[in-house]
Design brief:
alpha+beta, Aminoglycoside 3'-phosphotransferase, Chain: A, domain 2, six-stranded antiparallel beta sheet, 39% helix, 20% strand, globular
Length: 483
């Protein structure tokens, strides 16, 4: 691999310097920016690639930039207790460059450059420009390299040219562009070295013939040399998949049916079956791990560390911490006794499963999307084998969230859906998740603790929702309401 293909452009420092004051003001306002509420102290270029040179009537720049921010221990403590994960996040940017901005692109404005190589130009968020997004799709249709960028595609999938692009505005941690209601391009915003599970797992599932997950049609990476070795780090940047036109996500459907007083248990049971089908195919496609005593204790210790970090950051959690800790202690104790040979198996899982990760097509078929995992967790952790109870616990918590979002609140609706979901899972897997109550309680507790930390940081008005689950789990010491 040549140095030119792996290192930043020689002029990248000067170019980023000219954009620096504009990006410092623009980046923190984006929904996908991880450092809300704090200024950027340093912006560093990782790579700059000209997909269209600025000298063109419309230029397109692909940037990877590293944003450093002042550390605030109470905010920068991650769910696993680490404190430096977000000190220098790397972000993917697609920047349009024009002499003057057309009126329909005004909402995409980043700013007017006054110094450096782009002096006199206007720069803007390129995802809002149909011309530039058409260009990007054309590049994705043709495998090969462009500077540090490497484009790949499935040779068996036809991606037509001329599909009209439109950017979606509802996402938070990433960005998506729909092409002609046929394909959707998902761009990863906060990127890091390694294979992104949102590409890795759907690729493996497609090779298994799993119909529950849209198969990747094209994708692209950046190959960047490290400072200390001649090898390159690969950063996953984006993936194109079939777009499920007219589909409704499980969260929206559940809230609509809940608001009308309609029964959702039939759909919940189908979601349980779909989850088990995906777990089955993941176990067949990728290695599974039998968990011995040491591994189970390591899982329990990790949960306890996350609880301690969350309790330090969120005072409202502290009164419940001792009772919650018993869930992890029971898991470690049961692992020491040998546990259940079914329960103590780990495999690749979704990692961030909730109702919003399911889409129901107009014909009633359910699909599962967004395999990136919980964005706050390190990539290496998200790619580790986990007990399937982690995904099940995420869904059980999601039914609680749905009830807490509706008026009047009907706890029995959540209990019925939780039970139906577990029964549906057993229809396919042959084992009801509730048959391993210690494992399920530990993972549901871990998920609720994660939710407490997330809501305290990002949506304080929602904090009572996971705190209610924390109160129940601390009081009952079980997941009895899932029966």
């Amino acid at each position: 691999m040549s140095e030119a293909a792996t290192r930043p452009h020689a002029n990248s420092g000067a170019l980023l310097a000219s954009l620096d004051p504009l990006l410092r003001a623009w980046l923190p306002r984006q929904r996908w920016f991880a450092g809300k509420g704090r200024p950027i102290s340093v912006l560093e270029p990782v790579s700059v690639t000209e997909l269209l040179p600025p000298s063109s009537p419309t230029g397109l720049l692909h940037l990877l930039v590293r944003a450093r921010r002042p550390m605030v221990p109470a905010q920068d403590t991650a769910a696993d207790g680490r404190t430096a994960e977000r000190a220098a996040d790397c972000y993917q940017l697609l920047i349009g460059v024009r002499r003057a901005l057309a009126p329909h692109l005004a909402p995409a404005l980043i700013g007017h450059v006054t110094t450096g190589p782009l002096a006199g130009y206007t720069v803007y968020e390129a995802l809002h420009d149909p011309h530039l997004m058409t260009l990007l799709l054309e590049r994705l249709r043709m495998p090969g390299r462009h500077g540090v960028l490497r484009f790949e595609r499935d040779p068996h999938t036809d991606i037509p040219s001329g599909l009209t692009p439109r950017v979606l505005t509802a996402e938070q941690s990433n960005s998506s562009v729909v092409y002609g209601d046929t394909f959707i391009l998902k761009l990863f915003r906060r990127v890091m070295p390694g294979v992104n599970p949102d590409l890795e797992l759907p690729l493996h599932l497609a090779r298994r013939g799993c119909a529950r997950v849209p198969a990747p049609a094209a994708w692209f990476h950046a190959d960047l040399a490290t400072e200390t070795t001649a090898t390159a780090d690969t950063y996953g940047l984006g993936v194109v998949q079939p777009y499920l036109a007219g589909a409704e996500d499980g969260w929206e459907l559940a809230l609509r049916m809940l608001g009308k007083g309609e029964d959702f248990t039939g759909e919940a049971r189908t979601l349980g079956r779909a989850t088990a089908e995906v777990h089955r195919d993941l176990a067949a496609a990728l290695p599974t791990v039998s968990l011995g005593r040491a591994q189970v204790e390591l899982i329990a210790d990790g949960m306890a560390e996350r609880l301690g970090a969350a309790a330090q950051a969120v005072p409202a959690l502290r009164p419940f911490a001792p009772a919650l800790l018993t869930a992890y202690e029971a898991l470690a104790d049961l692992g020491g006794e040998g546990g259940s040979p079914t329960a103590w198996t780990a495999q690749r899982v979704h990692g961030d499963l909730h109702l919003g990760q399911f889409l129901r097509s107009p014909d009633g078929t359910w699909s599962l999307i967004d395999f990136e995992g919980e964005p706050a967790r390190p990539l290496t952790e998200r790619r580790m084998p986990q007990p399937t109870a982690r995904d099940v616990a995420g869904m059980l918590r999601s039914f609680d969230y749905a009830v807490s979002s509706a008026e009047p609140r009907t706890p029995e609706w959540a209990a019925d859906c939780r039970a139906a979901y577990c029964a549906g899972y057993a229809d396919v897997s042959g084992r009801d998740p509730r048959m391993d109550p210690v494992l399920l309680r530990a993972h549901e507790t871990d998920k609720a603790v994660y939710e407490v930390l997330y809501e305290a940081r990002h949506r304080p008005d929602w904090l009572p929702v996971p705190l209610a689950a924390v109160r129940r789990l601390a009081r009952n010491g079980s997941t009895d309401d899932a029966h």
